[in-house]
Amino acid sequence: MQRVTLKRVLLIGAACATASFSYTAPAVAQDGELEEVIITGTRARARSATESPAPVDVLSGDEFANQGDTDLSSLIRNVVPSYNVNTQPISDAATIVRPANLRGLAPDHTLVLINGKRRHRASVIYWLGNGIANGAQGPDISAIPSIALKQLEVLRDGAAAQYGSDAIAGVMNFILKDDSEGGSLNVKYGSHYEGDGDLVSIEGNIGLPLSSNGFANLSFEYGEADDTDRSIQRDDAAGLIAAGNTAVANPAQIWGSPKIEDSWKFWGNFGLDLGNGAEAYAHANYVTKHVDGGFYFRNPNTRGAVFSDDGGASLLVGDLTGDMSGGCMNIPITNNIPDPTMLADVFADPNCFTFQEIFPGGFTPRFGGDVSDSALTAGVKGEWNYGSGLRYDFSGSVGRNEVDFFINNTVNASLGPATPTMFDPGAYIQFERQLNADFAYNPRENVNVAFGAEYRLEEFEVRVGQEESFDIGPLAAQGFSAASNGFPGFSNIAGGQFGRENVALYVDTEWDVNDALLLGAALRWEDFQDFGTTTNFKVAGNYRVSDNLGFRATFSTGFKAPTPGQSNAFNVSTEFDFTINDLVNNGTVPSTTAVAQLRGGAALEPEESTNFTFGTFFNLGALEVTIDYFNIEIDDRLNLSPNFALTQAEIDGLVAAGVTSAGNLQNFRFFSNSFDTETTGFDIVATYPIEWGGGLTDLTFTFNNTETDVTSPLERIAFGTSDQNALSAAQQQSAIDSAAGRVAQIETGLPETRWNLQAQHTVNNWRFLARASFYDDWFDSEDGRTYDGKTLVDVEASYDLTERQKIIIGVNNVFDEVPDENPDAAAGVGNRYSQFSPFGFNGGFWYARYNYSF
Question: CA 166 to CA 110: how far, in whole Å?
Fold first, then answer.
């Protein structure tokens, strides 16, 4: 593993920015070893690791190739302890684009770059994310195929003063391969110990010359993964079967990883030497996939506003006559059995209707989306009047991400027997454009000054769904729910395109005071169309005490702007409420709507942060170690408010305004700048090579401890700027309880401590790898329980058949570790394990891979 070591990492310094002015060839260390070069946006010349003011992880493409999974988010989690991602089995859109985070902060607190250029965010907003990710909107890292990567550089420091919005937790820069010849082909197959979740992938990379002075490096990946099932039968479903309902499935609800089909990823990286110190460059991608996952089971006796309107005491029967002349009566239910005679009469009567005629065993919706992602970045960089020393980089980029949702095996109950069972609820679309002009100059040999400007347009679109997915049908007045059950479609009031422009100016400097001391500073001003300006700065320094010991530190301010999606999106999520042991519909409305303003809703403001890091690096012989402390304070964090109960008058007002799904809502919420946090922790990275047995073993130990404290009082989180005295005592208590639950999610939803210990041994044609990964305790907000941590072990063996061919066999989680079983699974939603397990819940996974290189 390639990490922050004295000989293996170069600067991501105080002058990091969105442009990389020139490619610097690998530098030669004093002892003759070849050092790696990091090109993550430094405007100064490349520096050695001991000059770096900020910590950075550097991972080669091999780190991701030597694993069994194909989702890049999971591959990163296995080797970067400060990076977290969950499986997300039943989480609305978060199942389609999984939320990932760095240093315990939200997914959109980490800026993602491709070749040093800002990557557009995904269109998905994470409505369900165990508190940490609730309401976040970050990039889709899984769209990047690992075979396209030359290396990944993870800056573990605040960098908003250099890069702009989102760079609070850090920066991840994915560097694409730039070879002009050669290539490789990988074929992989794997499966879980339990015999499900079969995975197949084919991926390839080829480098081609682009005329005689450039390169075209092309990559593709095709993959499919079957879904998994880690369910146990729910008590309510088992009771129905015991009572004689043979239409209920076992299990009634599949709880596991979603099915992924037709996953295609095409990426290209291009460069062309124009002469006289100038170079044209570009990279582009096109990605598609189909994701299909399960939802919660709808009980055929009790599901409100579909099968019953009184909690299951009777079966809801609709009158289809239009004038209520059918004489239809609800059917009493005794011991899970609707009265057989009355049920038969309703089935035979064309004027009366119950949804047991369509779904006698209830139904479990299937929800997912078709994802498409495309982007293009192009630019030219070089030296003005070649030899003048003034360097430039002009670039432009466009990016688009769309998730076209679908939900099947469900109903719009208000349409009665005319309802479809397959719906197109609409789509979310994210579109971004960006222009950059960057310059750098060395007025003196030991001073670098850089400056530039940026323009960015960000648009979020909600595409209206098919009418039946949000329509209020003729049975709504009789107590039947409107809109597609589980994920209501986007109505005309929710649809629309929402955009924002912003411009930025920056300047940064680096000064090598002498051979031992480096100082840096950066200043950035940005003006946003919707909320005004923000100015941020960063100062940094590195002091080398000796060749074997040094210290580094940074201090910076930062910000994260609310996205147009967060400011304008409507959504309804069906969630399981464990306090009443039933499903509830929770709506999210823009914070400036009239109903949100009744509870303190207001126009969103940017989050503001201060970051401080202090670290040391040293080596004891071949042992190389870095230790870095960090402190991140964020004010006015963006998150979803607690759920507020709607009054009937408010429901009527929303329905009249066109929010047709409001008739089904128990609660609503909105985005707000409602609380402050302080995140502290430290990282340790140590490497040690050992020569023995005719081969070489590389040992790597990485450790992360992160702790987040919510520093705001519960009242602020619960009520924001609203008048709590206007709420009843019960409403106040409900809001306080919800706020307390949100605090628990933020503070304990992720493991406080994680570490990895990896050994890789190479001898002759063999390569052996073993990795132990520890995950500390975590809190599951859905069942209110804290689960014990676990240690997972991965192993892999590779053998070179020929100079060009090799076979690899490996096992992830070789000892089949799974979370402790959920004791309330049968009484709840049938999830055998915690949904928010930081390492998943599918158990051991074996794989085999064939590699051909040329």
Answer: 6
Distance, in Å, from the CA atom of 657 to the CA atom of 647, rounded to the nearest integer, reads 15
Q: Which amino acid is at 222?
A: Y
Query: Could you say which DSSP state residue 589 is in?
Result: -
**How many Cβ atoms are within 10 Å of 477's Cβ, its own excluded?**
12
Q: What b/e string do you get for 220-239 counting C-beta neighbours within 10 Å, with b at 16 or more? A: bbbbbbbbbbbbbbbebbbe
Contacts of 489 (CB under 8 A, 6+ apart): 423, 424, 425, 426, 464, 465, 466, 468, 469, 470, 483
- Closest-CA residue to 609 (of 157, 187, 238): 157
Q: How far apart are CA 100 and CA 804, in angstroms?
A: 35
Confidence at residue 384, expressed as pLDDT on a 0 to 100 scale: 87
Tokens 């940074």 map to which residue?
A: 554
Token pair listed for 409: 């095996």
Q: In angstroms, rounded to a whole number, what is the distance separating the alpha carbons of residues 686 and 488?
A: 50
Question: Which structure tokens are listed for 392?
Answer: 């430039």
pLDDT of 177 reads 97
Longest dimension (CA), the chain: 95
Phi and psi for 599 in degrees, rounded to 5? -110, 20
Nearest CA to 334 out of 296, 301, 297 is that of: 301
Angstrom distances, CA of residue 760 to CA of 66, 72, 697, 700, 795: 11, 21, 5, 9, 10
Q: What is the DSSP track for 404-427?
A: EEEEES---GGGGGG--SEEEEEE
What's the first-to-final CA gap in the chain, in angstroms?
A: 24
Helix or strand holding residue 365 (H, E): none
| One-letter identity of residue 726 | A
Give the Cα separation of 543 and 614 in Å (integer).
12
Which residues make Cβ contacts (< 8 Å) with residue 695, sequence separation at least 6? Answer: 761, 762, 763, 764, 766
Identity of residue 501: E
The residue among 641, 609, 604 whose CA lies nearest residue 716 is: 641
What is the C-alpha to C-alpha distance for residues 378 and 282, in angstroms, rounded to an integer?
A: 4
Q: Which residue has the tokens 């609730």?
A: 134
Sign of torsion over alpha carbons 167, 171, 172, 173: positive
Q: Compute φ and ψ for 665, nearest 5 degrees.
A: -85, 130
Which single residue is written with the structure tokens 């011991």?
335
Q: Which residues contact 839 (CB under 8 A, 6 or more apart)?
A: 77, 773, 775, 790, 792, 813, 817
Which parts of the chain sit beneath pLDDT 70?
Answer: 1-51, 129, 573-585, 654-655, 657-666, 721-722
* Strand bridging mode 496-512 / 517-528: antiparallel
**Quick one: which H or E segment has residue 649?**
helix 648-656
Q: What token pair was written down for 95?
A: 């199942």
Q: Which tokens go with 140?
A: 């889709």
Neighbours of 497 (CB within 10 A): 13
CA distance 254 to 89: 9
d(CA 454, CA 394): 10
Q: Rounded to 10 degrees, what is the CA torsion of 252, 257, 263, 266?
A: 160
pLDDT at 654: 67
Helix, coil or strand: residue 791: strand
- The reported pTM is 0.91
**344 C-beta neighbours (distance < 10 Å), count:** 11
